[in-house]
Amino acid sequence: MPAATTPPAAFLDSARSAGTCRRAIINRVLNVLCVGLALLTFVPLVSILFLLLKNGLPLFGWDIFTQLPPAAGQTGGGFGNAIVGTLLMVGLAIAIATPFGVLAAIYVNEYAPGSKLANAVRFVAKLLTGIPSIICGVFAYAIIVLATKQFSAWAGGFALAILILPTIILTAEQALLGVPKAYREASYGLGATNFQTIWRIVLPDALPAIMTGVMLAVARAAGETAPLIFTALFSQYWIRSLNEPTASLSVLIFNFSTLPFEHQVKMAWTASLVLVILVTGANVTAQLLFRKK
User: Fold this and answer.
1) DSSP per-residue codes, 230-242
2) What Å distances lie between residue 234 and 40, 225, 231, 239, 255, CA to CA?
3) Topology, domain 84-290
4) Any idea of the CA torsion for 280, 204, 113, 131, to the nearest 10 degrees?
């Protein structure tokens, strides 16, 4: 009696079923792996927030916003002058860097995207993102501090502006690239000029993404220490003029964390918590104000 043979159609169906089952198992394993790796990215963030809340909340209160830093070995006090100085110098940096960064991105993307100058601007911006922040501080020290013969908030804001300028240029360019070309073509079809198209069509649509880049720049500027040590130095007093040494949260954290006094170390943790709250609040506010309707 001849051996039974499997019909070709049944064999193909069996092979397809086995292949489908194998692909489903591989797909499920990869999905679980991707979800697990995505959850792992939250571990550093949650750990940082946990440490900040654990070590920073004990001294968190109204006094830290209204009082000056205590002397070494003393208790009490706050760092209101450092909060004001941080907001002031970061604000100066954003006011200086944002117009230059956005205008450079507009030129690179809208007016001469393929020109040698545009390529040079992109190359320099990418190169500046890799330069250590302390180099920006040394440059600002040579340009402003040595010329004026004094540390100042202006010098600190200038150093931070140089540091965040490439971030604003690159993110603004990507934001402009994200605007559909159909919007520009429709605007030109209605008789609008290039400037009118950019001002009324392109920039409003790209504004949320541009503001995201600006907030990234704010976060970086607020946490920098080395440029401010060379330019704004530090002060134990409230700021009275932009032409004098100015306190900042990042420098205060650096100074207090290296002291052998428990209270100062705790204040460094509290200052870190305040810095995170300020940056997060600025990011959330910007997202709410400039999100697409």
Assistant:
1) HHT---SS----T
2) 38, 11, 9, 10, 10
3) MetI-like fold (1.10.3720)
4) -20
Classify residue 64 as exposed, middle or buried by CB count within 10 Å of its CB (0-12, 13-18, 19+). buried
pLDDT 10s digits, 54-80: 999 999 989 899 999 988 888 888 999
DSSP character at residue 58: G
pLDDT at residue 271 tops 90: yes
Q: What angle do CA 278, 281, 286 make, to 5 degrees?
A: 125
Longest dimension (CA), the chain: 108
Amino acid at 33: L
For residue 240, what are the contacts with CB-CB under 8 A and spacing of at least 6?
none
pLDDT confidence of 1, banded at 50, 70, 90? very low
Contact predicate 190/201, CB 8 Å: no
pLDDT (tens digit per residue) in 133-158: 999 999 999 999 999 999 999 999 99
Residues in the chain: 293
How far is CA 282 from its chain centroid? Answer: 11
Round the average pLDDT of the chain to a whole number and report it.
Answer: 89
pLDDT above 70 (res 47): yes
Q: How far is CA 187 from the centre of its chain?
A: 33
Please check whether residue 86 is in contact with residue 249, taking contact to mean a CB–CB distance below 8 angstroms. yes
Q: Cα–Cα distance between 30 and 19 in angstroms, integer?
A: 16
Q: Using CA atoms, how far apart are residues 65 and 68, in angstroms rounded to an integer?
A: 8
